[in-house]
Design goal:
By secondary structure, the chain is of the alpha+beta class. It contains 8 helices and 21 strands. The chain has 2 domains: about 220 residues, P-loop containing nucleotide triphosphate hydrolases (Rossmann fold, 3-Layer(aba) Sandwich); about 100 residues, OB fold (Dihydrolipoamide Acetyltransferase, E2P), CATH 2.40.50.140. The structure holds adenosine-5'-triphosphate. Adenosine-5'-triphosphate binds next to strand 2 and helix 1.
């Protein structure tokens, strides 16, 4: 037998596992409208990617394409290196080897926990004994082995969520899709559940694609966040990077990273709305710009000092401080968490840390007096 050099294990290059999922040049039109345009996205095994974007930006559509509930017009989707959708090819959902966690968990109320969890295996025609063993294993992994015979209604919200995750992982999928599983819960419950999911996803070492419109949820859960706007991915980055370096003013606005103020170049430097003069070193190209002023760029100083004069219009006690709405010269507003209650009408000075400002091309809608932006 002839052996080529590359057949020898000693010289075979280190094998890098293919991405858990990869989409390239994906486009879709529905009802004559472009819903997704030329989307490229990939996810390494063991990582969690959140798809974050405003309502209608295309998140759920993208997830449905990965799941096989829709087929793209153009582009290719690969799962663990295998093409599941592409020119002339579209594997059905059940042939893609995915787990899914839906809004409100979608558990069947008339079935026991064990039956709910075992349902995907039943659909695959797996024999009862094998199914029972796998269901026990999945329930043990989410800490619910004692609840196998209960109905979902007899479980807490957190336990129901665990059942939904057990059902999604019972067939040991290479990728789990989460479709806004917490969107219908009230805020307090959502915060508890996010912690639960984050803990479980990390413990189970899942590879997951998590769709949400809630940035706090995306930041808590994901290694990376893909921000979607109007059917396109505008930025993919770790949560910390998105906050410190948003790629555009519209991402900064969507993530509520601070006030967006217009700036204009003058003879001796830049004039920021609100009255601040910025050194020429802060310059951006062009004659006009939009400047993101995050709260961490601001320090309160006595009235008459600092770069900006701000008049308190209202305050709201938030437990961790007093959220003050401050009016700047020209009617723009900034919100800032203060350690003490400030009285309406009180004037404060604000010092700007130039290095923490972010400059963007001028945008038509910088912070208007009526727009509230939290720090
Ligand atoms: N079957 C359809 N025919 C026509 N347009 C559709 C269809 N399904 C979705 N759309 C449109 O596609 C766009 C993206 O919808 P999608 O549900 O993916 O957004 P989303 O980001 O998940 O929003 P949400 O957070 O509200 O669920 C929306 O403008 C929606 O109206």
């Amino acid at each position: 037998m002839n052996l080529r050099a590359t057949d020898s294990p000693a010289v075979r290059p280190t094998e890098v596992p293919p991405p858990a999922f990869e989409m390239a040049g994906l486009s879709l039109r529905l009802g004559g409208t472009a819903i997704l345009e030329n989307v490229d996205l990939r996810l390494a095994p063991g990582r969690v990617l959140a798809l974050l974007g405003p309502s209608g930006s295309g998140k759920t559509t993208l997830l449905r394409l990965v799941a096989g509930l829709l087929a793209p017009d153009h582009g290719t989707i690969r799962l663990a290196g295998r093409v599941v959708a592409g020119p002339g090819k579209a594997l059905p959902p059940e042939a893609r080897g995915l787990g899914m966690v839906f809004q409100d968990y979608a558990l069947w109320p008339h079935m026991s926990v064990a039956k709910n969890v075992g349902f995907p295996l039943e659909m695959q025609g797996i024999a009862a004994a094998e199914r029972a063993a796998r269901v026990s294993r999945a329930l043990a992994r989410v800490g619910l082995e004692r609840y196998a015979e209960r109905r979902p209604a007899a479980l807490s919200g957190g336990q129901q969520q665990r059942v939904a995750i057990a059902r999604a992982i019972v067939a040991e999928p290479a990728l789990v899709l989460f479709d806004e599983p917490l969107s219908n819960l009230d805020r307090e419950l959502r915060e508890t559940m996010v912690e639960e999911i984050a803990g479980l996803v990390a413990e189970l070492g899942l590879t997951a694609l998590y769709v949400t419109h809630d940035h706090a949820e995306a930041f808590s859960l994901a290694d990376e966040v893909a921000v979607m706007e109007a059917g396109q991915i505008s930025q993919i980055a770790a949560p910390e990077t998105l906050v410190s370096d948003p790629a555009s003013a519209s991402i900064a606005r969507f993530l509520r990273l601070g006030a967006l103020l217009p700036a204009r170049r003058g003879a001796e430097g830049w004039h920021l709305a609100g009255g601040a003069r910025l050194a020429p070193a802060s310059a951006a190209p062009g004659e006009c710009a939009t400047v993101l002023v995050p709260s961490r760029a601001l320090r309160v100083v006595p009235a008459g000092e600092g770069h900006l004069a701000a008049r308190v219009t209202r305050t709201l006690f938030r437990g961790d401080g007093h959220l003050a709405t401050l009016a700047l010269e020209g009617g723009h507003e900034i919100q800032l968490l203060l350690p003490r209650r400030a009285l309406p009408g009180e004037v404060l000075g604000l010092h700007l840390c130039h290095a923490r400002l972010r400059w963007f091309p001028p945008c038509p809608h910088p912070t208007s007096p009526s727009e509230r932006i939290s720090p």
